[in-house]
Amino acid sequence: MTKTITWTELDELGVRYCFACKNYGSSMVQFFKDDIDKLASKLIRLGVSEEALTEIYNQHVYNILPSAD
Description:
Largest sheet: none
Helix content: 55-70%
Number of helices: 3
Order of helices and strands: HHH
Distance between the termini: 43 Å
Structural class: mainly alpha
């Protein structure tokens, strides 16, 4: 029996944000940066903190690991 995974809008946007950050980090193509900005705005409206998005961005674009504060 196949198990179905239900995706919410937040899940989909979060995954797209991570991939946009990874793609921008490896290519520095402006298209991906524009996509990151659009997705971040939508995620913030859905309640995701800017700090969390910044951590994801830094991790994928600059390869900076989050601090253990």
